[in-house]
Design brief:
The chain contains two helices and no strands. The chain is mainly alpha-helical. The protein has one domain.
């Protein structure tokens, strides 16, 4: 099995996102151009598709990062809670 470095994984992920965004925007522009028979509107649809694709990827990555930060924070909070049996309480002087 081939092990990839983190840097290479990120590069491949970026290439995959780029290809997906370009193909999606191109399909969107072609459909718009065929339906409306307006080349300018197809061009606008292409650039709009690129913009929306980039926005979707950035939003998705931001949500993943926020979830990871929240998970790490919860793990840190759970690890810092120390419980001892010898804590004084209001009931310790009953006997």
């Amino acid at each position: 099995m081939i092990t990839l470095t983190i840097r290479l994984k990120l590069i491949l992920k970026a290439i995959g996102y780029t290809i997906t965004i370009l193909v999606g925007a191109l399909i969107f522009a072609i459909i718009t151009w065929i339906v409306t028979q307006n080349q300018d509107l197809g061009t606008y649809a292409f650039w709009g598709g690129i913009f929306l694709g980039i926005l979707a990827v950035l939003t998705d990555e931001l949500q993943k990062r926020e979830a990871l930060v929240m998970q790490q924070w919860q793990e840190k909070q759970a690890g810092s809670c120390v419980r001892t049996w010898n804590t004084p309480s209001q009931y310790s002087n009953q006997y």
